[in-house]
Specification:
Radius of gyration: 23 Å
Strand order of the largest sheet: 7-14-9-12-11
Strand content: 15-25%
Helix content: 10-25%
Largest sheet: 5 strands, antiparallel
Order of helices and strands: HHEEEEEEHHHHHEEHEEEHEEEHE
Number of helices: 10
Distance between the termini: 57 Å
Shape: globular
Structural class: alpha+beta
Number of domains: 2
Length: about 400
């Protein structure tokens, strides 16, 4: 698109941004994940092009001045068996655009570290200073901030389990509880909507391959821990965790507050499921046990009448089902209840080996949300309804 570096630097900022996004999309086959980032049970964290640095007029060009896109050094998925990888993104600092003129015309673009961009971190001092700092960027930064977020979630779990005899961190589900809650607040946000309009194929009927392309960059989206560790009058998050046998189903009947039944606002149900999977080398995806989210409807892509996942830009359901982390957002304006007037979500375990294996630990997070703040206090209503509730289990 640009004949040389001078042509790029002379172009409008928005046009340059679009050109870099298009170039990275076309070269995605050469930017794939390196082992062990594609592993089945671990979390793979990509880096968002974002930091709090305030560069001056001498700073080199910013490739994405308007959007929190994955940064230029962040590798792209998908993972094993075309599963969602990276799982999500966290802020990893900005890189400048490194450019090289190509003989015959054109530019090669790459990530370039710059003293003007990045996140402030401690660094060794050759003179023994104890307060030396520098700006850095990369996926290591994103992984460190994800660990920090996990500590905040652990503090919240300490509070939730403070009256229990058994602490959450002594249970076999402790790892998947953190994994589930970390991913639970993730979303594509504005950049997902932008890429859904800009990336090929442009035919509206071919939205599925386009969203698979976006998933390679964003996974399930950028972390937002605040949505997990705190509720609001119009939002509450519920957490369940257990061990499940292969060929068993656990049924969760979610308490539905009156405030979600009486108004006509958009209702949102966010569901995240993760599990630790025993491995096998006899199947293409290496998962010996697969967990699925199912409702009472036969249509697997929709749990309830009038509620669907396709209205929001997010990974495809078939792609999300290929790993050990499923994150989906369902939206609608209807009551979202089944024929018996219940809001039911089931976790189904399926063995791929044809025989029973050890118990599989999993965690399930569900957030109920209405569009507007309500006087009836959705958070308080659900909290009161869920106390004393027990989950019924149904064997299949």
């Amino acid at each position: 698109m640009y004949a040389n570096i001078a042509a790029y630097q002379a172009a409008d900022e928005d046009v340059r941004e679009a050109a870099v996004m298009a170039a990275i999309e076309m070269s995605k086959a050469t930017r794939t994940l390196l082992s062990p980032a594609e592993s089945i049970n671990s979390l793979t964290v990509g880096a968002v092009h974002a930091d709090h640095a305030d560069p001056d007029h001498t700073a080199p060009p910013d490739p994405y001045p308007n959007f929190a896109m994955s940064n230029l050094a962040s590798a792209l998925g998908l993972g094993v068996n075309r599963s969602v990888k990276p799982d999500f993104l966290e802020k990893g600092g900005r890189f400048a655009v490194g450019m090289t003129n190509v003989r015959g015309g054109g530019l090669e673009v790459h990530a370039r570290a710059s003293a003007h961009y990045g996140q402030q971190v401690a660094t060794p001092s050759p003179t023994g200073r104890l307060n030396r700092r520098m700006l850095t960027s990369g996926t290591s930064n994103a992984a460190a901030l994800t660990t920090r977020s996990a500590h905040f979630i652990a503090d919240a779990l300490d509070h939730v389990y403070q009256n229990d005899d058994e602490k959450w961190y002594t249970q076999k589900t402790r790892a998947v509880m953190l994994k589930t809650l970390l991913a639970h607040g993730a979303s594509w946000g504005d950049i997902g909507e932008t890429l859904d309009e800009a990336y090929p194929p442009h035919d509206p009927r071919k939205w599925s391959p386009r969203r698979n392309t976006i998933t390679q960059f964003l996974g399930y989206g950028q972390l937002d821990t605040s949505r997990v560790i705190s509720g609001d009058s119009n939002r509450i998050t519920l957490l369940a965790q257990d061990l499940i046998h292969a060929e068993q189903r656990h049924e969760y009947i979610v308490p539905v507050p009156a405030s979600m039944l009486k108004n006509q606002d958009v209702r949102t149900v966010t569901i995240t499921l993760s599990w630790t999977c025993p491995m096998t080398h006899t199947t293409a995806d290496h998962r010996a046990v697969v967990l699925q989210l199912v409702g009472t409807k036969k249509n697997a892509s929709s749990f309830w009448d009038g509620v669907a996942r396709t209205r929001r830009a997010q990974p495809n359901a078939t792609t999300a089902d290929r790993g050990t982390l499923i994150h989906t957002v369902q939206e609608g304006t209807k009551k979202m209840l089944d024929e018996q007037g219940r809001l039911v979500i089931c976790v189904q375990a399926i063995s791929k080996l044809g025989f029973e294996l050890e118990d599989v630990p999993y965690a399930l997070a569900i957030t109920l949300e209405v569009e507007q703040q309500t006087r009836s206090q959705l958070y308080t209503e659900v909290e009161q309804l869920v106390r004393g509730r027990t989950r019924s289990r149904i064997g299949t």
